[in-house]
Structures are given as C-alpha cells and as structure tokens.
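Sample A.
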Amino acid sequence: MDTRHINDGIKKGFTENVEKRSNKLERNAIWTKTRAISKLPKYIPVQLVRFFWKQKTQKNAKILRKVIFPEKLDVYDFCNEKLKKSIEKYRKLKLEKEDKEREKKQAVNKESDDKDKNNNNDDSNKMDVDNNDNDKDNDKEEEKKQDDNNDNDIEIDDKMELFSGYYELCGIVTHKGRSANSGHYIGYAKDKKRNKWLKYDDEDVTEIKSDDIKQLYGGGDFQMGVLVIYRRMEIEDISK
C-alpha cells in the first residue's frame, strides 16, 4: 500500500517470500522467490490495488494514494538476462545509427557553409578556390565511402530477436467513489492513428488531452486508475 510508482509495484510483484523446508537448517525457513519476464507479450495489463479490508471498521476501504503510471514504460529491469541482452543490443544499434545520421547531417551542413564562404571570395582568388574545392570534393567523396563502409559494420544477428523493451500506455479503467461495492467506472483508450485519448463514460465518448491522464493517478476523491494497459512498442528498422 506504500507504492507510489507503477514500477515499484511491478518489481514487488516479481518478488515474494515463501516458507519452505531447509535441509541445511533442518527446519522451515523463509525463502525469497524472484521471477523475471522471459518473453515480452503484445500487451501488459497492470491492476492497481485500490481497496483493502480495514480490520477496525470491518469494511473495504479505498486507497487514495497517488500512484504514477507513465505513458512510456521501460520493462528492462523486469526481464531475465537473455531478454536483457536482446534489448541492450537493439538500443545500442539504434544509438549507433542515430549517431551516424547526425554526423552525416553535420558534414552536409559544414560542406554547405564552406561553399557559401568560397562563393564570397574575390575573383582574383577564384582559380585557387576552385582548385581547393576540387580537393575538398575528393575528400568528401572519400569520407562518404568511409561512412558507407562504417554502416556495414553494424551486424545484426538473425538468430537473436530484438526488442525495444518499451511499452506505451494505451488503455485505462478508473473508479469514481469511495466504496468498493459501488461507484462508477470510466474507460479511456488511445487512438493510435490519431495519437489522441478518448474517454468512454457510458454512452458518452469525448476526446481529452494527454495531460488530463495525469489527473487519474489518484490522491483525492477524483476518479483514479484501477487498471492500466500497456502496448508493446515495436522496434524500428535499423538495418538501413
């Protein structure tokens, strides 16, 4: 009940204490059982525990504490070692590709700036400038060939399936009211094509802003999330 971020709750869900016989101690002992994700599903539903049995009043009470569920969830820490290596490899390859694209863009901008400077030189130096431009063009051609060769250095193992390790928030179910036996449920879904959030309140369907989702974290009497659904973010093409 002290969870304030969905990551903390998920992490706790993969660890539990069990009582088991210990041959070494010759008695029962408390063992810590730890699990990890071995395969990433298309969707991950996460239930937020919002109600608990209050012993003093003998009633179900609602937990109003604010629990953050981000729009982008990184599940790397919850995966086993094999899956972690797959995620690490994809992220490394993606970063290398982005670095090379940025370097190429900077080289093109620099070449354009150099040509502008050369065009502003005096006519008396035009012949020398033209010769220098030819040398620079040859250098650029060599650099381009070198960049093309470097692109081929990124090898992708066909046997290893790559994953981004990221999930995007795509659905939410909220509860409004203080009682576990009554109240009102409202659904939210993200339109992937338009990148817009829709609110489903019985027969009424309205479009809301992305920032309005943060109001569903809890922390008061306003409606709060009790179930969130994440959709796997597929990898980009990093072979080109």
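Sample B.
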Amino acid sequence: FARGRQFISHLNDAVGAIKNRINGVEVEIMHVGGARFVYQPDFVPSQFFLPGDYDQKAPYDQWTSQQPTGNQIIFQLEKKGDLEEGEFSREVIRELFDGALVAMEIQPLSTPEEFSTFGEGSLIFALWSGGSVAVLWDGRSHLDLNLFTYEKSAKFAQRFTRWVKKKTTFSVVLRDEMPRGYGRVVNFLGDIVPRHDPHWWV
C-alpha cells in the first residue's frame, strides 16, 4: 500500500472511507513522507547530453540583450509582540518616511504622495532623480518597503533600511532583490560585466 505508485490515490480513498464509516469524524493528513528517487542498481545511461547537444541560440540572445540599469529591493519589516498604544500611527509613519528622506539626502521631485483613505494603514510614495521609494503600512505591525535605485549595488537600500530599523522596533523578516532594466534583464550588472560569452555557449 505505502510503496505503490498509486499511494496518494489510495490514501485519499482511505480518508473518504473513514469519513463515510464514522459520522461526524474529520480526518486531517498532517504529513506525507516520501518523494524518494527510485534506486536502480548498476544503472548505465544510454546517452550523455552536453550543452552543445541543445539549441542555445534563444538563451544566448537573451543573455547578450539584457541591460541592467538599477536595482529593486523589497523589504518586509515586522514588530514582534504587541504594539504599545500610540506607538504607530499614520502621522508617525509619515514622520518616519520624511526623516528617512532627509537622512539619506534624497530630494524628491515633488511632495511625496500619501494615500490613507483605504483600510487602516497608509501608503507613501516618493520619486527622485535617483529612483523611487514606497512604504506601505498595514495599520498594525507590518511595513513593506519597496525601493528602486539606479545605483548598481544594494548599499543604498541597506542604509535606508538600517535607518528605519534604528528609529523603530521593526525587524526585517523578508528581503527580495531584483535587477531592473531592459532587454529581458534577469541578471545583475555585476554578474555580466565584463561582458563575455557564458560557459554554456559552445
């Protein structure tokens, strides 16, 4: 039963049978262990395939066409435990946002936009010649920081986040960094400069 190829199907049948036999009983599968490779002793492959056996023209064209121009970094920050009364508000978040712009010597092209007519939190956005930043507060203990810069490294974003952490009790729980540009960019500039053919292009 446990070793058959139809294990999951049989398991679902067993769950259904238990529910049908005993009225009012809820069955929950907590864990299924497995997914091991089938071992084939003394296996000898019939053929080896190398990169040259495949048409690499399309991926090579993509590799050479991409032009990274900046970085986008998304941080999620959260406060552990309960918030103290009055610890955060839309006014506090706006003050924090404006303070970060001053500390980072950012001069917005116009007054930062704030949206707070929806939900319990707020969204603040600023655009400057070197990039853009958006801060989303859920009205409780979660902040999303979405930062784009034309700088080719993540140092600016790290400085910005350190300033926010210094002024609050939030901690970074997630960080996601992505290159931005044109030409179907998927690599950071440092990954492809100096330009050279990838090892798989033969």
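B remarks: Helices lie at 7-21, 57-65, 90-103, 155-167, 189-192. The longest strand covers residues 67-78.
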